Fold these 2 entries.
Entry 1:
Amino acid sequence: MKNKSLALLLLAGLTGCSQPSTSPEASAPAAGKNETLYVNSRLVDCVGVAPMKCMQVRQSPDAQWELFYTQIEGFEFTPGYRYKLQVNVSELENVPADASSLRYVLVKQLEKTKA
């Protein structure tokens, strides 16, 4: 009887220490919106927190190129090619002051053409 009581006590103690499981939905970032980005064929010098190389992007074929200081998750840039990408853009919370508050994730590479 004493062994059963001890086993139940240990089991109750271990159960109380277990961490609650979280569903993937709870830890996933909020769904953002899809956008089309055009990426130029070369990296250019830019200054963020420190000097670095940035992509040049625009949101339409006739818009001006703009410096893009962050990364697109899932996208690997190859110099000498222009890209048309579909990306998902979502807002991040509690980011450092020197970081982007937007997260870019590649949804689909729509075009890749030699420059």
Entry 2:
Amino acid sequence: MPARIILSDGEYRHLRTYKHDFFAATGLYAGPSGKVILKLGRLVGLLGLPMSWLGRYLADRECAVYRSVADVPGVPRYLGRWGETGFVHQFVEGHPLQRNESVVDEFFPELDRLLGELHTRNVAYADLEKRENILVGDDGRPWLIDFQISWHWPPSGRQGGQRVVPDELGKFILLRLRQADRYHLLKHWRRHRADQLTVAQLEASYRRGFFVELHRRVTRPLTLLRRAALKKLTGRSRSAKQDGPEFLESSDAGFTPQASKQD
């Protein structure tokens, strides 16, 4: 990650890198307005092939989601683009939801409302399977982070540009991913506060559904393949959670700090 970045209100310095993987790196920065998160899409090529196009594409998609849900409580405030493949958002004081963690009575009802608001705005979160994407704020309230694979499908006529995916297929994917969101919400709810669920909700929390089962069967082999390739290339089977060589080319050495682009 860059050692420093320049935003509209001044210089922010790197405190730590939370994680980086094949697609992006995520770092914590502190500056005049407090702490912010910089998510930086991939810039470095792979086996001689350019990959910055992928970083730009994923950043464009995720920023579009952040803009569409900008005023939803429980979503970090979007602060604008940074550089070619990056963007900045508010840092949330808290921690990822832990296994068997006790949460306040309102935690899952609020998470339910948050997810419902995303769905109302034609956004499927699509990554609720990962418990670590659910943050427990220092005030005990839920937050959702990391919209990299979220599916945003506004009604026809409200989407600028040419769509690659046919409209009916896009709506079908949105429907199925929202159903998967509901399943994963109930699954986490059952594991942490089963006492709050009805019998029908408890039963639904065990029904994966076709889309969830398909996702499991497709992504598990791909994950194992990715880890095998990563181990062959780098000697480690999992993506590093701290600064690593794939993103060091964006540090102070050979990298000029840039001001953020406000959308």
